[in-house]
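Long-time lurker. I teach an intro course on protein structure, and each term I like to show students one example going from raw sequence to a predicted 3D structure in token notation. This year I'd like something fresh instead of my usual example. Would anyone be willing to generate the tokens for the chain below so I can use it in lecture? Attribution to the forum is fine with me.
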Amino acid sequence: MRRSFFLILFLLALSFADEADKRADLLGTVQVSRVHSLDNAKGSYKSPRRAMFMSLLVPGSGQFYVGGQPRYIRGAFYLAEELALITGLYYHSVYKYDKQVEKYQKFADTYFDIEKYESAMNSFHPYDMDKFQRNYGSERENYCKAIYGGSDSRCVSFENGYDFYKSNYGKVVQLADPSAYYRTIASVNFVLGWQDAVPDPNITAHLKLDNPDYKQLGTSRNYDSYLSMRKKATDLADRQAIFLGAIILNHIVSAIDATLSAKAHNNSLYEEKVSFLDGIRLESDLHLGENFRTGAAVVYLF
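-- Reply from a regular --
Happy to contribute to a lecture. Here you go:
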């Protein structure tokens, strides 16, 4: 009984071997590749897309997500740079800018006199007022709107401007548009409104000409100082674009770095050092049938 059982097993083995041999002849040699498993000691898989979006939102966060000491250091650098840039943006384009604006506004309140300006411009009344209005009145409408809130033709006209001022300025509780007012008086055409203004000694003779061209009415150191203060404020405001550009660049560079870091991390999970023994393969050939043969060979693959 036991012999019959082994005989049946032997016949089945011969049958399976013969079938396998036929399939091998039909398909040819099949190369079996070895798939390396994840190295759990190096951590888990990290999504490059997630790392990218994290650093795109908050620089450095993608590096922290991927992990590893070098990436922690780079992540801390990107985050510190972000905080430094935001601080710089606030300090220069908000805090210092507001202080500078406050400074030149107080300076104008102290040294620019609306009545002095109106009186000086009214003194040119005997001359050709149409030409004078064309040369020196281009900002008058904005000036009237900034102070009174409207562009009354009597205010806009140099001929009636001084009388309008005396009749209406006392009713003004506060400037209608302070920003427009401080911007308008920065024009050189308002130079005679500054307390230290000195009229050009030749301006009277110049205005008596039949067709006088434009000529500055006078000079003022206060006016020059005011322009310098406003320019400094403008420079501080312009730094906003520089800081914003640097912030955007920091986000982009951090996102790219986080993406590459995640890919490098994932690649390291599949790395496996192959030893000499891992390269050894034993190939055998067993043919059971009419042409019985057997053989074996040792092959080094690497």
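Some talking points for your students: DSSP finds twelve helices and four strands in the chain. Residues 2-36+272-300 form one domain.
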